[in-house]
């Protein structure tokens, strides 16, 4: 799920995100201030633990979507900054809980909060951030935005449970996998974009278009993220190759390779992902099998399909800087090097 | 929704379906007999009206999926023939109800039952066929298959209602459209294929694979069907160009053209599809706009994406005649000339 690229790196390497960064720069400066403010608490542990993750260099794509979407809809006010902060808190809470569930030790290249402060603290600080997130939404006072974001929170939780069930299950179909990523990733992308139209009081058609844009962008983004996990290129991006493999996560490159593989190959995937017996050479074997079955290229191809849908969703909006910036985010998502 | 090609035509023009036809020929002869038997009733109107549609030359792709899926799973018995009959009845019931809702006057080139016998009779005979369908499923005695097919029946009905809501609504997004066709078309394709594994007592992984195959094939099939409605080629296939346009149906070629179009073009779509003011030259204008925005080609491109997923879903099954025949059905669906 996590955003893994440092802002500074992405600026250098990803020209297609530059217009979005430029567009939201001022607003995001305030969002970043709100994030620090709202992670405060008299209980020292809370800001300490929260800031460990908050300062770790995610590129904050989700709140940027909220800011840009509200700009696309001509919103004037500061509610979008608060909603963007709420979106980022919701995402951060999910990451904290994810790391507990996955027993992860590294996130964005840093030791996870759960290893430093314990699982219980990570769960509770996640809940605290989620609570803060809802408080901010309530303060904004848009019942519509509140409904969209609280629906998303429920769906994300559902997606996490679905992921727990599919973990280590090599029988997972592509449809199952898609259902998981639609819930755990795309739902928040969709909500983050949709609320931009809602606080700007734009017609339903624009809210639906932004929702569709966000949802399909989210699916494309996660597909590529899952491809990067088996790709040499991603070590340059601050993530280590094979994390998903070691966690027994069933992502599309694995689904395709397992299904297209021979009986022997399926035995390999079952031993490593189902039984969790992973030897020194197994990651390389996994990468070789994925290459043999063209599974990374086909995962990217599937991502481009969702990218195309996201692009068409935006077509109803007038051309201009904001729309170009959002189209750039799609371009970035489907063309990350793998 | 409807299958529009006569069996004899498809044999000539669609080589990729030939292996499937050959494979299921004997079983389908029995299914066709069951269909005639079970459409009987002491109330003369029922068989008369039912046979009007039943004899009108659908190619019975859905029951063929049930037969082929059960063969792929090594099923031996005759339950698959009854389930296939139940599937076709469910589909026929939907068509009868569809024609009432859409106020259609032609189906597969013939005057619709509702024009000949009235709307009430069409609705009730549809219900009768649905009832017969459930009776046959119960007789087969597989609770699993019964659950899958009755779930599908509920989802199809939901899809029809969704379609009713999106009809004439030019704001429909691609996601909305996909939700409609997943419910009204893909759900029955999915169930038709899945029950083949279920009555053969195969493991869940095979049922899920067949379900995924059927679902994605169904989406691809419907996408292409919707493309054909704006294509000159389809007149050769027994359907008349522009039916969906005259009905104000919002299908993907329209969704893409509307969203990609200029303000003037959107006004055109709103006048014709929303207000239903359709003049003599408007169909040609619609076809020209769709061509201008590359919307048929892109609809076919989206269909190929789902075809690719359907293909991968089948990959876990051993190679052989049956698998080839099902792969041929995908090939047929995504490569119909448009």
Automatic annotation (TrEMBL), chains A, B:
* GO MF terms held by the record: metal ion binding; prenyltransferase activity
Stored Gene3D superfamilies: Farnesyl Diphosphate Synthase
Cofactor(s) this protein requires: Mg(2+)
GO BP annotations, alphabetical order: isoprenoid biosynthetic process
Which InterPro entries does its entry note? Isoprenoid_synthase_dom_sf, Polyprenyl_synt, Polyprenyl_synt_CS
This protein's UniProt keywords: Magnesium, Metal-binding, Transferase
- Pfam families attached here? polyprenyl_synt
What family does this belong to? Answer: Belongs to the FPP/GGPP synthase family.
* Protein name (record): Polyprenyl synthetase
Natural source organism: Methyloceanibacter stevinii
């Amino acid at each position: 799920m996590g955003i893994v690229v440092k802002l500074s790196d992405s600026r250098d390497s990803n020209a297609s995100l530059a217009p979005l960064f430029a567009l939201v720069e001022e607003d995001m400066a305030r969002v970043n201030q709100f994030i620090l403010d709202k992670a405060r608490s008299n209980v020292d542990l809370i800001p300490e633990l929260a800031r460990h993750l908050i300062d770790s260099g995610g590129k904050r794509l989700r709140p940027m979507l909220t800011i840009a979407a509200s700009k696309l809809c001509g919103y004037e006010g500061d509610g979008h900054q608060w909603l963007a902060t709420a979106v980022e808190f919701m995402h951060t809470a999910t990451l904290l809980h994810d790391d507990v569930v996955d027993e992860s030790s590294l996130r964005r290249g840093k030791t996870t909060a759960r290893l430093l402060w314990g699982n219980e603290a990570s769960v509770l600080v996640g809940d605290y951030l989620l609570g803060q997130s809802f408080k901010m939404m309530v303060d904004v006072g848009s019942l519509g935005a509140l409904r969209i974001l609280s629906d998303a929170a429920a769906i994300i939780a559902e997606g996490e449970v679905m992921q727990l069930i599919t973990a280590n299950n090599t029988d997972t179909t592509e449809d199952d996998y898609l259902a998981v990523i639609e819930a755990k990733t795309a739902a928040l992308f969709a909500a983050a974009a949709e609320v931009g139209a809602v606080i700007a009081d734009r017609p339903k058609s624009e809210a639906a278009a932004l929702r569709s844009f966000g949802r399909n962008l989210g699916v494309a983004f996660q597909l590529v993220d899952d491809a990067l996990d088996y790709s040499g290129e991603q070590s340059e991006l601050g993530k280590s190759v094979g994390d998903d493999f070691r966690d027994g996560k069933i992502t599309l490159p694995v689904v395709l390779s397992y299904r297209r593989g021979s009986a022997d190959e399926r035995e390999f995937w079952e031993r490593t992902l189902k039984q969790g017996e992973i030897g020194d050479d197994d990651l390389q074997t996994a990468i070789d099998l994925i290459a043999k079955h063209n599974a990374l290229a086909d995962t990217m191809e599937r991502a481009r399909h969702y990218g195309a849908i996201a692009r068409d969703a935006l077509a109803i909006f007038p051309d201009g800087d904001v729309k170009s910036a959002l189209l750039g985010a799609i371009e970035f998502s489907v063309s990350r090097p793998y």
